[in-house]
Amino acid sequence: MRTVAVVGASLAGLSAARSLRGQGYDGRLVVIGDELHRPYDRPPLSKEFLAGTLGEADLVLETDDEDLGAEWLLGARAVGLDARERAVRLADGREVRADGVVIATGAAARTLPGSEGLAGVHTLRTLDDARALRGELARGGRLVVIGGGFIGAEVASTARALGLDVTVVEAAPTPLAGPLGETMGALVSALHADHGVRLLCGVGVKGLGGETRVDAVLLEDGRTIPADIVVVGVGARPCVEWLAGSGVDLDNGVKCGADGRTSLAGVVAVGDCANWYDPRSGLHRRVEHWTGARERPDAAIATLLAGGAVEPGVPRPPYFWSDQYGTKIQFAGHAAGADSVTIEEGAAEDRNVLAVYRRSGRPVAVLGMNQPRLFTRLRKQLAA
Amino acid sequence: MIPACRLADLPRGEAFRLDIDPPVSVFHTDDGEVFAIDDTCTHQDASLADGWLEGCEVECPLHASKFDLRTGAVDAPPAKLPVRTHEVVVEDGMIYVRVSTDAPNLPPCVASRLAGGPA
Q1: Is the domain covering A326-383 a CATH 3.30.70.370 domain?
Q2: Which of A83, A175, A304, A329 has the most crowded CB, counting CB atoms within 10 A?
Q3: What ipTM was reported for this prediction?
């Protein structure tokens, strides 16, 4: 293999580039990123960076003396993959020919239809998004967060600490029920009320009020919530439009084997855009976690360099964390499919728990609130 | 040298935190080696003694940065700066640590707290 193109220059793309060099690949390496920035760390964008306690230099993922010997094409958006010619086509007309392609184009924040062009309405995914939102939060006022998922909850927490008046609107009856289940979703979401943030559940958003700048969120039950700033945190969609017609199988992102291999030889996919097969459950799962973007490229690159001739291992159970209102929330495994969840340490009313999810008596997931030590032990047992 | 704990009281795969300032962690690996490094992750305030020990590597319990116990080097981000390593001496079944005289790489929030600034 003489040229490998890594399409995507965030954590998954950087990790893939590192894995390539780490596994001895010494050919030409091209990293293509649609943002202008060098790889940066996204988790702080909704927390310390938004709060102003971390600056942009703190987000840089590369170390000072790191040299991957890569050509960086930044501000360059991939618009097509020509499987026959083995070429990645860029929006500016350039083409990058490569023997191996790593798809790491990530996901983009979903928006609210009809909110385009209305000032004061934000999504939060990129550094530029975070810069814009940080500037607005600094002016204070009333913030309405649409979506009670992790991004929404973290933005609410940060904004509350900055002194804003915050309301979270969630369409589902219980926020975080998908990733955490009903019981624990309700427990983690109780942090909002604990800290003076209004949480409205089970009600959809009909639209936004305001002519040029947002001034309210209109709910489907007829209520109007006044707002100076609105953050839309309603999930992300995989960025795979550019692969249409390429021959790469798409199904909720790029459909992959248990090691990131796609339907095309010499093409692997990693990170948020990749829907990997999960041998533990027998299902494909698209995991949008930092740790997956960090760890899985190793396996995908091994497969790429070996021409698919390696036996995929079983990846560690997915792990993610969230920081809300000073509480460290950690989760590993899959809550879906659990038939019981029990608090094994701490107490719900103290917002300090270690909860184990089981299916037919077997642990399948673990949740920690301010329990890093025990959580790590259980996480390790889960992987065993 | 500072006495940490008895080797017999530290099973393989476990860590012991020495509550000095800044704290130091002693790790007993699955292969039976003993290492000491600064306990605080250089990325953010987390105790590496609470982390995931695998081989000669510890993973921060919060954000999954990895450090090499032998060198203190960062094996995986988000941390960028190494942790200090400390000399370990085992004598008569007791683990002792000779704390490095190098300056520690403490995370920004901890460094400013020690300096008396806002956390």
Answers
A1: no
A2: A304
A3: 0.87
